[in-house]
Automatic annotation (TrEMBL):
InterPro entries: Mpo1-like
Protein name per Swiss-Prot or TrEMBL: DUF962-domain-containing protein
Membrane spanning stretches: 24-46, 66-89, 101-119, 131-151
Source taxon at top rank: Eukaryota
GO biological process: sphingoid catabolic process
Organism field: Torulaspora globosa
GO terms under cellular component: endoplasmic reticulum; membrane
UniProt keyword annotations, A-Z: Membrane, Transmembrane, Transmembrane helix
Length: 174
């Protein structure tokens, strides 16, 4: 799968979906991508950059800008979720010990790699593009939820058609 166009939503989602179309693996990712995202935000919140600004704040800003550029509506939803976690961390409404944060982080990655090995039978997207995968994974999961709730059926159908065509093209070259 070639690299996706940076600010084209369909291209970005297609890149990630290519590696995640088996139902059990997608379900594993639906649970553990947010787990990894949350634990990462908790860990990064421990790193102060300036006064009360943490690495999590910078992380949220960068992810939010990218998500908003890809899709303003979905980006606003994603930004709201990221900001809510920031507020909860800033106010100590959420406070885990570092060992618990690290345990969630490691558990999430183990489950995802297991999903790829046992169910997807395909290498993870991060093998081909680490940065794109880490940034896109949470957004992809948000879109999978939105698709399940009946939002953006045309985009969902286009992605399914794209993946089917990619599979057919791949088979033709074998």
């Amino acid at each position: 799968m070639s690299s996706a166009t940076a600010l084209d939503l369909r291209s970005q989602l297609r890149f990630y979906k290519w590696y995640h179309h088996q139902k059990v693996n997608v379900a594993i990712h639906a649970l553990f991508v947010p787990t990894i995202l949350f634990s990462t935000m908790c860990i990064l919140h421990r790193v102060k950059l300036y006064n009360e600004i943490t690495l999590t704040h910078l992380f949220t800003l960068c992810y939010s800008i990218y998500y908003l550029l890809l899709s303003p509506a979905a980006g606003l939803l994603a930004t709201s979720i990221l900001m809510a976690v920031n507020v909860a961390l800033d106010t100590n409404s959420i406070h885990l010990s570092l060992p618990n944060e690290l345990s969630l982080f490691v558990l999430g990655w183990i489950c995802q790699f297991t999903g790829h090995t046992l169910f997807e039978k395909n290498r993870p997207a991060l093998v081909d593009n680490l940065l794109q995968s880490l940034v896109l994974a949470p957004y992809f999961i948000l879109f999978e939820l939105l698709f399940k709730l009946g939002f953006m059926p045309q985009l969902q159908a286009q992605l399914e058609q794209d993946i089917l065509k990619l599979k057919q093209d791949r088979e033709a070259f074998k």
